[in-house]
Amino acid sequence: MSAMAAASPLHNRNIGFIGAGAMASAIIKGLLASGISPGRISASDPWEPARAKAKALGLNVTGNAEVAIVSEIIVVAVKPDVVASALAPLELRGKLVVSIAAGVPLMAIEIAAGNGARCVRTMPNTPCLVGEAAVGVARGTTATDADVATAMALFRGVVVEVPEKQLNAVTAVSGSGPAYIFLLIEALADGGVKAGLPRATALKLAAQTVKGAAAMQLATGTHPGQLKDQVCSPGGTTIAGVSALEENGFRHAAISAVTAAKARADEMSASVAK
After folding, report:
1. Distances (CA, A) of 268 to 80, 139, 186, 261, 262
2. Cα–Cα distance between 74 and 19 in angstroms, integer?
3. Residues with Cβ within 8 Å of residue 33, at least 6 apart in sequence
4. Whole-angstrom Cα distance, residue 52 to residue 20?
5. What would the pLDDT profile of 68-81 be if each residue is shown by its tens digit?
6. pTM of the predicted model, to two decimals?
7. Rounded to 5 degrees, what are φ and ψ at 209?
8. Contact 8, 42 (CB under 8 A)
9. Which of 102, 261, 246, 248 is nearest to 180 (CA)?
C-alpha cells in the first residue's frame, strides 16, 4: 500500500458505485492508481459491457442493494433522470452519498437517499478520464467537513468546494469547458494547416501549447493577462494575433459560451427539481 493511500480519507473504507459508466470508471481507475484495493470497491450497472469492464478491474460487481449494504461511501454515477429511482429503494442511513449526476439538486438527492444519509453533490469533467479533473463540490445539509474531504479525495486534479448555488456556474466553466478548449485546439490546428504545417504536427503543437499554458498559469498563479503580456513584444507576431482575436470577438465569445451554458444548466436543474 502506498503512503498516499494510507493518508487518504478513503483509506480502509469500502466504496460503492451505482453506475459504472465512463466517468465512474475513470474515478475507479484513479482510486486504484492511488493504492486503494479493488476488493474495497463495489459497482453495479444494468449494462453488461460496463459490468464486464468493472469485473476486469477486479471489483465486486453486484446489484444496487448489495452495493449500498457493503459500502460506506456510495458514488451515484447514473443518468440524472434515474437518480431518484436508483436511490429510493436503498437503505442509506449512515452512508455518505456522493453524486456526480449533472444538474440534480442536493434537495432531490437528499430526498431520494432518505433520512440519515449524508450527501455531497459534485460536478466533475471529462479530463477526469486522464487524471486531470476540474471538480466543484457542494455539501448537503448534514455533510461534515470530513465528508467533503472524503468526496474531494475521489478525484485526481483540481477540486474546489463551492456553495451549491454556484455549481451550475462550475458546470458552465469546467464541466462544459473541455468542449470549448477542444474547439480552440482544433481551430489552432486548422490555422497551422492554413499556414503550411502538416495536420498531425499542427494538432500536436496546438494541444501541447494549451496544456503548457494552463500548466504555467497553475504553477505560477500569475494572472493570465500578465502572462499574455509577457509573450506580446511590441510590434511582434503575438500582438498581431491577439489583435485579430479581439477584432473577431474571441473574449466575448468565450464569456457568452459560459453564460449560455449556465442558463441551460439552470433550466435543467429546475426541470429535475420539479
Report:
1. 10, 20, 29, 11, 10
2. 10
3. 131, 156
4. 10
5. 999 999 999 999 99
6. 0.91
7. -65, -45
8. no
9. 261
